[in-house]
Amino acid sequence: MRPIRDILALAPVIPVIVIERLSDAAPMAEALCDGGLTVLEVTLRTPAGLGAIAAMKAARPDAVVGAGTVNTPELLDQAADAGADFIVAPGLTPALAERARHRGLPFLPGTATAGDILRGFELGLDTFKFFPAETSGGVPAIKALEGPFPDIVFCPTGGITVESAPRYLALSSVRCVGGSWITPKSAIDKGDWAFVRDAAAKARTLAP
User: Fold this and answer.
1) Per the domain annotation, does 77 fall within a domain?
2) Cis peptide upstream of residue 156 (ω within 30 degrees of 0)
3) Is position 190 annotated as part of the catalytic site?
4) Domain coverage including residue 83
5) Residues 99-149 pLDDT 10s
6) Residue 207: inside a domain, yes or no?
7) The domain that contains 78 carries what CATH number?
8) Is 41 one of the annotated active-site residues of the chain?
9) pLDDT at 62 over 80
10) Which residue of the set 41, 74, 122, 134 is catalytic?
11) Does residue 173 fall inside a structural domain?
12) Which residue is catalytic, options 129, 134, 163, 190?
């Protein structure tokens, strides 16, 4: 199992992807990987999400495809069976952490407070999604958490834009950010894969 920190280090931005039509999955993966982003998070917010994971991995074997919005152990099992390479959850529960460990999958749970982080430590975790980033205090909040938790690693997600991403990426605890601006619904609906590829290429350059 590749450690979650190693996955987060592969690119400065992880696209947060909502797939409504399964037919969009393969060209989406092609566009993102061609733009230089090979770590992809497919949210399980739509019926096509699980199938999209398999379709993306088939189209681009070089991609690391994770499942996002995993809220229950049962959904985690479904994501694992679909071939997900890692799991992203909006929050943290012992049941989710244990199921991810049982299935041998890197796990990135959402946290926003010191209490969340301490509960994660008790479960053997030290790498988290800071979520929802912008409404949970953003860069100042993460800076404040770096003091008592100097060895922590974050992937902030939620409300981050191409303009604000560099401020997060400049923090010592941040390995990457999650963002949906790379794959807007308007581009997906039109099949504008050139837009997605170019947005990915720009995001690839955001690391300080």
Assistant:
1) yes
2) no
3) no
4) 4-202
5) 999 999 999 999 999 999 999 999 999 999 999 999 999 999 999 999 999
6) no
7) 3.20.20.70
8) yes
9) yes
10) 41
11) yes
12) 129
